[in-house]
Amino acid sequence: MIERGENKEYLPIEGLAAFNKVTAELLFGADNPVIKQQRLATVQGLSGTGSLRLAGAFIERYFPGAKVLISSPTWGNHKNIFNDSRVPWSEYRYYDPKTVGLDFEGMIADIKAAPEGSFVLLHGCAHNPTGIDPTPEQWEKIADVIQEKNHIPFFDVAYQGFASGSLDTDAASVRLFAARGLELLVAQSYSKNLGLYAERIGAINVVCASSDAATRVKSQLKRIARPMYSNPPIHGARIVANVVGDPALFNEWKAEMEMMAGRIKGVRQKLYDNLTATDKSGKDWSFILKQIGMFSFTGLNKAQTENMTNKWHVYMTKDGRISLAGLSLAKCEYLSDAIIDSYHN
Ligand code: PMP
Asked: Which family does the entry's similarity section mention (predicted)?
């Protein structure tokens, strides 16, 4: 960077132009009409959290009283972000403990019942904390209801490429909604997929009905950002722009993500195999295989997670979530024994 003469002058409020370009293209695909027709307002944010927070401030200012619907459960910081933005929120049903799967009927009913014009926060892929994503057919039905009710979809995309191993597959939900011509918001993070946690690099994208609206939205987002943090940091933005802009580095990154996603899938399979081979109760463990991403809901309740910790020294969150990124193949058998013991005691 020094050799290239890159300095540490301030970025413009909206961030590094080369970053904003590639981040939008990674998300929507370079040929997407929302980009071609300049209907997209992209502003670099302070990673996923900062981008969500900027959107929170935008909603509070321009949609006073509008509610954000969030999944139950969701990533722990969502509620804090909307509380601090003074945006009212409520929850929609998402997790069904009976199947350790999606409560699809409940989700649809709650989105339908919300006041017209609400924002619906959706995890683009690899739902945190459950690891449970809607199927493509379910995404279509979710889009139908959102459209019917004039709601505004608001995606949180913190794991693009890291869930399935493919950047395009993991962005399919967002692209499906964009293809319907809906106006929508997407917060992006490069913490996980590029391992840039501490660089605080991400973006807020707003798809608008016209290029004129996109210009206005971008201008208003900048007005909100200016007194909050003035302008975003440059280093992570350059890393993303350099990696995506260089074919060799881009391919290397994609191969590494594929490897990471593949490793997690391998661990899921091994854990499932151990569970089904050892557990004689007839319990269906296939939810482990159906879930996606680094997190998995085990279906263990609070008392059962305490057994995991006290007896087996497996430390996990009390909601029953484990991180598969921290599990090696060699430890799957031990974990499986611990889970079975905790379930049946
Ligand atoms: N959204 C979700 C669903 C997440 O899991 C995370 C990280 N745990 C984030 C957003 C934001 O992370 P960051 O601010 O580091 O991008």
From this structure: Belongs to the class-I pyridoxal-phosphate-dependent aminotransferase family.
Q: Dump pLDDT digits (tens) for 225-240.
A: 999 999 999 999 999 9
Whether residues 74 and 207 fall in one domain: yes
**Residue 56 in contact with residue 81, Cβ under 8 Å?**
yes
Note the pLDDT tens digit of each residue in 268-282.
Answer: 999 999 999 999 999
Alpha carbon distance, N-terminus to C-terminus of the chain: 58
Provide the domain count of the chain: 2
Report how far ligand 1's centroid is from the alpha carbon of 118 (Å). 22
Q: How far apart are CA 338 and CA 345, in angstroms?
A: 11
Predicted ipTM? 0.98
User: Between helices 47-62 and 77-84, what is the axis angle to 10°?
Assistant: 40
Q: Looking at the domain assignment, is residue 12 inside a domain?
A: no
Ligand 1 pocket residue status of 308, Cβ below 6 Å: no
Instruction: Please report which confidence band the pLDDT of residue 5 belongs to, taking 50, 70 and 90 as the band edges.
Output: confident
Determine the atom of ligand 1 nearest the C-alpha atom of 74.
3
**Most informative mutation of 77, 127, 157, 197 for ligand 1 (most atoms within 8 A of CB):** 77
* Domain containing residue 45: 17-245
Domain boundary among 217, 245, 273: 245
The pTM for the full model equals 0.96
Residue nearest to atom 1 of ligand 1 (CA): 158
In a domain, 35, yes or no: yes
Residues annotated as catalytic are 75, 156, 192
Model pLDDT, residue 311: 97
C-alpha closest to that of 206 among 187, 222, 192? 187
